[in-house]
Design brief:
There is one protein chain. The protein is built from two helices and no strands. The chain starts with 6 loop residues before the first helix and ends in a 9-residue tail after the last helix. It is an all-alpha fold.
């Protein structure tokens, strides 16, 4: 998938979704919190990656 626009961001979003699903299924509250936090960070990072894939231009000008 290297070289594809949005490829890395899409992979990160998929991994975040997988972690969120695991968190929902686990019975350990500490593990659930850890997985949920990791999923949130991956989603945030994927948003930044997708912005970079688009060149990061035009996103701040209004």
């Amino acid at each position: 998938m290297t070289g594809e626009p949005g490829g890395k961001a899409e992979q990160m979003r998929a991994k975040a979704e997988e972690m969120k699903d695991l968190a929902e299924r686990t019975s350990d509250p500490d593990e659930r919190e850890r997985l949920t936090d990791q999923a949130r960070r991956l989603r945030e990072q994927s948003g930044k990656e997708s912005g970079q894939d688009m060149g990061g231009q035009g996103m701040t000008s209004r």
